[in-house]
Amino acid sequence: MGAYILRRLLLIIPTLLGIMVINFALVQFVPGGPIEQIIAEVQGQGDVFQGIAGGGGEVAGGGSDEYAGARGLPPDFIEELEREFGFDKPPLERFLSMMWNYMRLDFGDSYFRSISVIDLVLEKMPVSISLGLWSTLIAYIISIPLGIRKAVKDGSSFDTWTSGAIIVAYAIPGFLFAILLLVLFAGGSYWQIFPLRGLTSDNFAQLSWPAKIADYFWHIALPVFASTISAFATLTLLTKNSFLDEIKKHYVMTARAKGLTEGRVLYGHIFRNAMLIVIAGFPAVFIGVFFSGSLIIETIFSLDGLGRLGFEAAVARDYPVIFGTLFIFGLIGLVVGIISDMCYVLVDPRIDFEKREG
């Protein structure tokens, strides 16, 4: 197992490098970079630019033909912007310099905010941790027992009506369910039970520790519920189908013939084998809820997390934030995949990845 983990850790390097190369290359062909953003802002503020250009005199013409909208701007101004953002160097040199800095955990500063990328990510992290961690935890706590129960009661009325409820829950888009929760429970047309926005109250710092905990869960209840609904449906059906496949196998019939109780058969023999596929899906569920599915939920509930950070960085072409977060989250995703493989072995010691690769 140790040699396998070492190989997987070494594979992180070319995999992460490939991710960064592809995205960096794609960005080179996307119009509207940070220099274009500055040019557009300057062109919309003529009086301000007159002062920048020098003495309020006439603005020099020409500009750079490389940038759309740069006509009328002095070439010196464009060249200064290129030097400031590092675009005076060839793309390959910029990429190698960026990766060297990333290997030293130096992710630079945001182009348009006076803060480093690491500090910016840490500032937004509590929201995403709250949504991702609690959504994943609640999904597993509810879905696994429910999926097992549905497998045991397969074809019963319990299985039928729970399947109907799960299908309906899965069919409802997350953003629509979030809006419904706001309308019903956050001061819409019905009850004012939960707060409308934010992760904590304004007076959070003055609250006692028990009150802080209660206030925190009071604020995240609706967004966590909205982000859990789709993962909950998928995981329940996955667990049920996995257990159904194992229940029909010969070793289960042998265990029952030996006189073992149904609970011992279910949790002593079936559980380990059936949980393998559920564990395999954990990285996708966790990463999906933690990062991908947070933008709409954060926007609806006015939460300032990583989802909105990534969207705003993409719109503003804030490349240090885009590539820095891509590197960090790509690395996290690859490491979570290795942890998932380790969980395979913990659940079923018969699995030997080294022999499988041999």
TrEMBL record:
Keywords: Cell inner membrane, Cell membrane, Membrane, Transmembrane, Transmembrane helix, Transport
PROSITE patterns recorded: ABC_TM1 (PS50928)
UniProt entry tagged with the keyword RNA-binding: no
Membrane topology summary: Multi-pass membrane protein
Origin superkingdom: Bacteria
InterPro entries per UniProt: MetI-like, MetI-like_sf
Domain ABC transmembrane type-1 intervals: 125-340
Location of this chain's protein in the cell: Cell inner membrane; Cell membrane
Transmembrane segments annotated in the record for this chain: 9-30, 129-148, 160-186, 216-239, 274-301, 321-347
GO cellular component: plasma membrane
Record flagged with keyword Transmembrane helix: yes
Entry-linked SUPFAM superfamilies: MetI-like
One BP term from GO: microcin transport
Family membership noted in the UniProt record: Belongs to the binding-protein-dependent transport system permease family.
The protein's name in its UniProt record: Microcin C ABC transporter permease YejB
Lineage of producing organism: Bacteria, Pseudomonadati, Pseudomonadota, Alphaproteobacteria, Rhodobacterales
